[in-house]
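User: My instructor asked us to take a sequence, write out its structure as tokens, and then describe one feature of it. I'm not sure where to start. Here is the sequence I was given:
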Amino acid sequence: MLNTLKRVFSYARPYFPFFIMTLLFAAAGISLSLAVPVFIGEAVDCCSGKDDVDFFTLKLIISKLTVIVTASGIFQWLMSLCTNKLSFLTVRDIREDVFAKLERVPLKYIDGHTNGELTSRVINDIEIISDGLLQGFTQFFSGIITIIGTLIFMMTINFKIALVVVILTPLSFIVASKISKASHDSYVQQSKLRGDMVAFAEEMAGNQKIVRSFVFEKRAEEKFAAINRDYGKIGAKATFFSSTTNPSTRFVNGLIYAAVGLLGALSAMGHSAFIGAMSVGKLSSFLAYSNQYTKPFNEISGVFAELQNAVASAQRVFDVLDEDEVSDDSDMDILENCSGSLSFQNVFFSYRPDVKLIQNFSLDVQPGQRIAIVGPTGCGKSTIINLLLRFYDIDSGNISVSGKNISSVTRDSLRSSFGMVLQETWVFTGSVAENIAYGVPDASRDDIIAAAKAVHAHGFIKRLPKGYDTIVSESSGLSQGQKQLICIARVMLMDPPMLILDEATSSIDLRTEHRIQRAFNKLMEGKTSFIIAHRLSTIKKSDVILVMKNGNIIEQGDHSQLMRKNGFYAQLYNSQFSS
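Assistant: Let's start with the prediction itself. The structure tokens for your sequence are:
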């Protein structure tokens, strides 16, 4: 817990001036507010009895109180302003670091966590850090100043009664610490369940068409209700412990206040020579200080409860920051003048050590060849692409591009040598032109239009409300095929030396597919191309067709050769076209 707090406050270090100003304004504001009971006590003593009121002195006291209260309010406002600056700038830096970290972690980490869970850590957990740690710290500091200040004022009024208050005070801390210890584990579980719930809700909301088409609504509701029930139970437990802190300390503080009132009343009435005499005005001042003295203990105990929740959230955030990163390759060679030759030599790879996948895979590809990869689902087709682009690193063996081992060149230069169109379409929130120019941000409008025309996307784009300046997103109403055309236009604009087409035309109608195939044929001229396809009619003109099964190449050749072999490929092809 202590290390977590240190890491959070290390992010606040650059904004130390705001921290200092927060302390100064807090000290000034609270000091002025502590002077108020003194003047109230003097005002009470100005009213000695019936027809015995010193109105002149009373007016002066009221004028002083007005100035003091106004000044105290201004300082309190300035303190809040600095606190918010400190808090929001700090969590901004944490959030930026977490987001940047997600750009650097291995892809297997992203694959191993749901989008909702990662989103919850970036947004919800960091917001809890802001509320529970940084702003709570200000409450803690203000409470400490109030406690010290009121204690000094009480001792100047009556040292013996103040001593009674000090002796009874530790009871509040004992009660608060016991309850806070019990609530910590509950808050940790609550943070985890919050992430699970956000992840499930995001998953179901993002796939409503599939959920409804499979009539999964009822089961989704039941599963969400189960997670929500667990979250409710843990949340109720955590809230119960944290909510008992304040009333418990208030009860103890009430006992202290009652003891002070009783002893002070006896002193004011002259019935206690041991305690000493005290005027009614000083008694009212002492009672006000006693109330102010015990009040921060309630606030501090509440801060302890929020602290447990914030620390649990901070631990989840720092778990992301502590993940291993993709190794820095900035000092490696840059892949230049890529010829398009590729080589896989005795490659072994598996996502999990206990489940074997790619075993002793070897392949030589000449520049400009079109390599089609076919086979049943799960045979390792897309895995080959993941290894080629170093989304995952191989367990053993060697992969080289243009004679250079891909582990000896920078990932950026390797990946920029490929243009990739996936089966899953993705358009970000922005204009159509910005989406097409995603890989070439400085592309001219003419080049963007030319790329769109090449893939037959220009027609539907011109029919959009603002043409190429129309703002689109995943939920903007574009069809799957239209989004796929935009994705294909991206690669057309990049014009890379090598291509990867992973089911690139799966979401497009047959007529448009024939047009795009012609565009791809033109694009692939002189380029090494990898084509993954389930529709075997789209890869008949490939130079080499690799037939994979269980991570191994079981057949290799062009379409005519494989059909003459009458092997596994022929079975796959005939299964699609036989009557």
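For the description part of your assignment, you could build on this observation: The radius of gyration is 36 Å. Try explaining in your own words what that tells you about the chain.
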